[in-house]
Design a protein that fits this description.
InterPro entries: Glyco_trans_2-like, Nucleotide-diphossugar_trans. This is Glycosyltransferase 2-like domain-containing protein. The protein is α/β, with parallel strands linked by helices. The chain is built from nine helices and nine strands.
Length: 296
């Protein structure tokens, strides 16, 4: 059986300093049937030189230059030119580990796996080198990859887009909203998951998310502005009634968790251990106060 081709889409705008690391992580993939579409979104730095150098090194890399239109526009440009059966997004400042494509494709391609599918891996955070990483900013788990949770838990549950590998057919009716400079990935996840595709979770950190000073997510006024712009797009996917219903269910679940926590606290405060520790604390503070007064 012929291996399915994966189209890796790498949008880049003035991040030539990171682009080499991203493209190096692509060429190091153990799964070899891929193309890498480098979309230069009107960069004014060395992005063109870096992109062309990689396209000359390996014909699987394809460099494109376009007028600046933003991240959504660049991703759409890549989608329009993708020839693979599966899509792997990779922002130019991020990295995927060598087994990412091989591990994900095994879950979505082959006999009995003909339905539209998504494979999501776990991730870790890095700043400079992939050898120095930290825990992810959110917990990913199989039970969260559904339309309801993504609707009411974002951005607490915010899945980095390069964690996913997607059947290209999922994008037949979707393109990223080009008026958004943030939250476009949330819109994508909602659109895709509302159709209830089969989703597989790989609980291995096969993707690295880079945090640096130029990251858009650290600009709160920018994020707030784009959240407001995202609302009309969300309304096209989710009705107000649907959102209220799922939000109410989420509040109920959180209320149940709070009650459980309160019961645990009450049980502990009524325990012999707690009373014993309180007595020690009281006696210790009393002796300390006596010593201070004695010195005065």
């Amino acid at each position: 059986m012929k291996a399915e081709k994966v189209s890796v889409i790498v949008p880049c705008f003035n991040q030539a300093s990171f682009l080499d690391d991203a493209l190096k992580s692509v060429i190091q993939q153990t799964y070899k049937n891929w193309e890498c579409i480098i979309v230069d979104d009107g960069s004014t730095d060395e992005t063109k030189q870096v992109g062309k150098r990689w396209s000359e090194r390996d014909q699987r890399f394809k460099y494109f230059f376009k007028r600046n239109g933003g991240l959504s526009s660049a991703r759409n440009y890549g989608l329009d030119r993708a020839k693979g059966s599966f899509i792997q997004f990779l922002d130019s400042d991020d990295i995927i580990f060598p087994k990412k494509l091989e591990t994900a494709i095994a879950l979505v391609s082959g006999p009995g796996k003909e339905g539209s599918s998504i494979a999501i891996s776990n991730f870790r955070i890095f700043s400079k080198t992939k050898e120095e990483t930290s825990d992810p900013y959110c917990t990913l788990a199989q039970e969260y990859f559904n339309y309801q949770d993504l609707l009411v838990k974002w951005p607490v549950l915010s899945i980095p887009i390069h964690c996913g590998l997607f059947d290209i057919r999922l994008f037949d009716q979707f393109r990223f909203p080009e008026d958004l400079k943030a939250f476009e990935d949330w819109i994508m996840w909602l659109h895709l998951l509302k159709s209830n595709p089969s989703v597989s979770f790989i609980d291995l950190p096969l993707a690295l998310y880079r945090r640096h000073g130029d990251s858009m997510t650290g600009n709160f006024s920018f994020m707030d502005e784009n959240l407001r712009k995202a609302i009309p797009h969300i309304k096209k996917i989710a009705s107000e009634k649907e959102y209220i219903y799922y939000s109410f269910k989420e509040m109920q679940e959180r209320n149940i968790e709070l009650k459980r926590l309160q019961r645990k606290i009450n049980d502990y405060e009524n325990s012999r251990t707690f009373r014993f520790l309180q007595n020690i604390k009281k006696n210790w503070l009393g002796k300390l106060s006596f010593r201070i007064l004695k010195k005065i």
